[in-house]
Structure formats: C-alpha cells, structure tokens
Amino acid sequence: MKRISILLIFLLSIPAVVIAANYRFVSGPQGGNWFVLGGAISSYFSAAGMNTTSSTGGGVANVVNVDRGKADLGFSVGSLLGAALKGEGKFKKPVKNAVVLANLYPQITYFIARKDFVEKNGIKTLKDAIAVKDLRIACLKPGTSSEFVVSSLLKLGYDTNWKKIKKEGGKVQFASYSDGAGLMADNHIDLFSFSVGEVASIIMNIESQTDIVILPVDADALKALSDAYGTGTHLIKPGIYKSVTSDIPTVGDYTICVIRKDMPDDVVKKMATTLFEKRGDLSTTIKDFSAFNATTAMPATLPMHPAARAAFASLAE
Predict the structure, then answer these.
(1) Chain-centre distance of CA 286, in angstroms?
(2) Same domain (yes/no): 310, 199
(3) Is the confidence at residue 233, as pLDDT, over 90?
(4) Do residues 59 and 97 share a domain?
(5) How large is the greatest C-alpha to C-alpha distance in the chain, in angstroms?
(6) For 28-42, b where at least 16 C-beta lie within 10 A, e where not — what string?
(7) Do residues 100 and 302 make contact, with C-beta atoms less than 8 angstroms apart?
(8) Within a domain: residue 248?
(9) Is residue 181 one of the residues assigned to a domain?
(10) Is the full-model pTM beyond 0.90?
(11) What is the pLDDT of residue 3?
(12) I need a labelling partner for 187 at 20 to 30 A (CA). Which of 4, 63, 156, 256 fits?
C-alpha cells in the first residue's frame, strides 16, 4: 500500500501534457482552386497554433463529412449546404452539425461549348445545346459542388438529367478540370460544365487550345434553381476571357467554408480572425479571394457558427 501511495504522489507531481488538437480540412479535387486554397488556409491556421491538415474533397462529401465529424471544416457552396439542411438533392436526410464559418468568394457556373459545335447547331443559349440529341457533355465528378449545381440546373430548369441525355443519343463524361480541358481541345466533347471562381485559369487554358463560346443560361432555368436552392444570377462580363464580348447570365453562388457546429467557440473565433488577417496573402494564392471581407463573410440566410458571426461582426465595425 505504501508503494502504491508513493507511486500516486509521483504521478501527480508530473506536469500535465497538453495534447494539441489536430483539425482536418477537406478541400477539392486536385488541379482546382479549392485544393490550392485549402492547403494555404491550413498552413495559416497551423501557424496560428491550430494544427490543420488539408486533403482532397468535394462539395457534397465535405458537408457530409463535417456533419458526421469525419472532418472539422471544408469547402462547399451555399446552395449545396441549403439543400443539405433540407435533406434534398444529394442528401437523404437533413444535416444538423454543418454550419458556415464564412462566405469566401463568388462561385460561378460556366457552360463552355466548342465554337464549331455552336455554329453547326445554331446554338444561342444553354437550352439550345441541351436540345441537341447527340450532345457530348462533361462535368466534374458526382460528389463535387460543380456536379450538384449543374445536375440540379438540368433537372429543375430543363427537365433533363444525365440518364436522359444518354438515352437520347448523347454522351456524358465526368472528368477533372484538366482532363475536361483536354477532352474539349481534342474534340471529344462539345460542352464542358463546372463551377469555379470569377477569374479561372482553366478557362483561359481552354481558350488557348480551341475556340469556345460560354453559353448563357436561360432566365426561367435560373429562376427555377434560385427558387429551390437560393442561387443568384451572375453576369460574366467582358475583359476577363477573350471569348466573352457581352454580358453572359449564368448561375451565381458563394464558395463557403463549412465547419462543425460543435467546434469550440475560441477555436472558431481564432479561425475566423485568421482568415480575415490573412485575406491579402490568400488573395495572392487565389485571386478570387480578393472579394472576401468581414461583411460579405456573413451569410444572410444560411446558419453560421455563432462565434464566427460574432468575430466577423466585430471586424466589420
């Protein structure tokens, strides 16, 4: 008994070792802005004392993994989180533990068609392209926010889907940004659809390889998607891409960072503050991040972590 008492006294005299938490950040597919940005944000969080590792991900899977605690935070888009909260679209039941850390920057959906395909079929809008029976279309893989937005638009705005397109004689492929660009340059697809920021190097890359037309999305289709998931209309303006000579309406959304609702307030506050303090550095990583500020960081309708809202509200004053 005496030996046990001495051992207990010895153990109690040893200073407690505090094990630092490790946070898991899920980003996007390799080759895209999310993958690069996720790595940059993780490095700044780690430097600020919040050890964070970044891995690949996708808009749908990221929300699910954060909600289930398999990840702590990650990228998605506002419309996708809106569907997840309702248990609609790709989600079988409503999520409860995924909320917004911050709106980051506008997310734009592009429908890029080969110019020869457009001229051959007299195409003016996306509706005309969808009507082509032997359409060859590519999109990012299911599970990404791009595929969610595009497939939702096809269903709600044009009463079609991937299966119908194939049934009517078309071809559907799922590819990465770089692989899709290669498919278009090699004339293996007519239309490449994906969501990305307002200034996208992938589009400039495609333009350098083949003549393209960025198709406008029809107003009734834009309204149908907006009514369902709260998306907006974005105008692609001349000056960024050489193929754009007039305003082109398309789907507008926000890239958001989702976080576990049960994350500690002090950690969330520090993450929000770090994002704000490093906004200049992050803008050099991804130019679209230059749109980030404390006011637009706070969503109008989506649920936000209270500590993050409080932090950005204070920074916006």
Answers:
(1) 13
(2) no
(3) yes
(4) yes
(5) 94
(6) bbeebbbbbbbbbbb
(7) yes
(8) yes
(9) yes
(10) no
(11) 54
(12) 156
**Residue 115 vs residues 15, 205, 306: alpha-carbon distances, Å:** 70, 15, 48
∠ CA 46-302-317, rounded to 5°: 65
For residue 312, give the nearest of 262, 277, 261 by alpha carbon.
277
Say yes or no: 137 and 88 in one domain: no
Hunting for tokens 């993958």 — which residue is that? Answer: 35
Domain holding 46: CATH number? 3.40.190.10
Q: Is 76 in the same domain as 88?
A: yes
Residues 266 and 147 in one domain: no
Domain that holds residue 120: 107-253
Q: Yes or no: say if 27 and 38 are a contact pair by the CB < 8 Å rule.
A: yes
- From 95, 106, 39, select the one nearest 62 (Cα to Cα): 95
Q: Which two tokens stand for residue 186?
A: 């090699």
Instruction: Report DSSP state, residue 87.
Output: T
Residue 39 in contact with residue 52, Cβ under 8 Å? no
Residue 11 lies in a domain: no
Q: Which of 238, 253, 268 marks a domain boundary?
A: 253
Distances (CA, A) of 132 to 47, 214, 217, 295, 312: 52, 17, 16, 43, 47
Is 65 within a domain?
A: yes
173-231 pLDDT, tens digit per residue, is: 999 999 999 999 999 999 999 998 888 889 999 999 999 999 999 999 999 999 888 88
- 198-208 residue pLDDT tens: 888 899 999 99
In terms of DSSP bridges, do strands 171-174 and 136-139 run parallel, antiparallel, or are they unpaired? parallel
- Domain count for the chain, please give it: 2
